[in-house]
Prior knowledge:
This protein is mainly alpha-helical. It has one domain: Amino acid/polyamine transporter I. Strands 1-2 form a two-stranded antiparallel sheet. The chain is globular, with a radius of gyration of 22 Å. Keywords: Membrane, Transmembrane, Transmembrane helix, Transport. It is a multi-pass membrane protein.
Amino acid sequence: MATSATSTSRRGGTSALPDDDQTLRELGYPRQLARRVNAFGNFAISATIINFISGVMTALSFAMVSGGPRIMVFGWLGVGLLVLFVGAAMAEITSGFPTSAALYYWSAKLAKRHNAGWSWFTGWLNFIGQIGGTAATDFALANFAVALATLQWPSFHPDAKGILAIYGGILLVHALLNTYTVGLVALLNKISVAWLLAGGLVITFYLIVFPSHHTTTSYAFTHFVNGTGFKSGLYAGMIGLLFTSWTFTGFDASAHMSEETTHAAVSAPKGIVRAIVFSWAAGLVLILALTYSMTQYDKESKANVPAAEIFVDALGHTTAKIFLLVICGAIFFCGLANMTSNSRQIFAFSRDGAIPGGQLWRSVSKRTHTPVKSVWFAATGAFLLGVPSLWNTVAFQAIVSVNVIGLFGSYGVPIFLRLRRGDDFTPGPWSLGRWSRPVATVAVVWIALSSILFLLPQSSPITLKSFNYAPVALAVVLLIATVWWFVTARRTYRGPISYGTPEELAAMEADL
């Protein structure tokens, strides 16, 4: 198998697009997954997971007390730009290594030494981040579904157990769809982009045109709120950046879908960058429409679902219910795509022997040619992450932090290792050229700073109910990974497995 320094040189030196299956064989894997995703479909899954409607609406309750409109608008602009640097750096690496293994594979091939160790911890960070993404999205959908039901039936007020049961039901539906209707899932990922664009435009148009009263431009752009309980406004504003960071997660899905994408060495990196740019622009318009419509800020910020209260105050109950239905649809698509991406990471990581019971999780359904058992692994893990909501009032923010830190941490490691490679790194057909190293440097610095920031307490006073348990969840997973590494894995895990020469793998595919 070719090394990281040379594996992309032959492909990168030609203007013709590389053969997808031959590229995969050169990376050490046989083709097992069906290539049914085109360039638009690859973009669509990342755009669906980023999901500017879902991200903005679900994290609104957090943003309105941690900085308010000022952080929502300018934080979106600043953090969105920094995330674009992260995405571009990842896209370049994706082009060189278009495999579902993605991040942990990149780390193994880019590290100068201790390759297996870098790969191991990158994979586990990505694993917990992916689980957190699935959990946060479907938990948010449960809360929005309750808000919609409460508007329709005012007597409907489920307790924490009821919301957890609804959350479990949503995970079950997403797992069943990923198990039995794989073709439908691919179609829904494409439909979701139109849903996002149309839904965002309609909500924005109504919020701009129909309310009888709007806030002033100064208020919509610069009003600052510190409702965290901490005295420092700077601290409140900094943790409020989680509002934007939570939205811009999951674009590694384009990389995880590489083995199911045609012309993956170009389509996957373009999918990452296009998804970020699309969501950045569309999300800003939606945020401005919301900040101009926050006419009863104190009441709206204290609501269980602030978006629902803003819609009711600005447009009335009927329109609010319609818009909540649109948002629920967007979040549903997001959760479905999250679980798809999550299962592919579990499949790839298990294929390389890094998850207990890997023989089970890496199996592929002969009917659908997808890793069905990994889907149920993802659903179960996400449900367990939501259980603390029974006693913790900031469980959603904690799950979001797990998602952001886990994912961005796994993004940062291979980008950092790529920087260490310097000129020894040869990109694939999609490259940043002379901007490669500056972009990667900015990406690594932002990831390091934001990861520290989002582990900090998010509300005061700090009690059992308000404690940010993200550090605990991350510590437990990393402790398991560390203990397992030193006890046994460092002797058995050698990083991504090469299953044979390209010729041997081609013969193997004929028997699959």
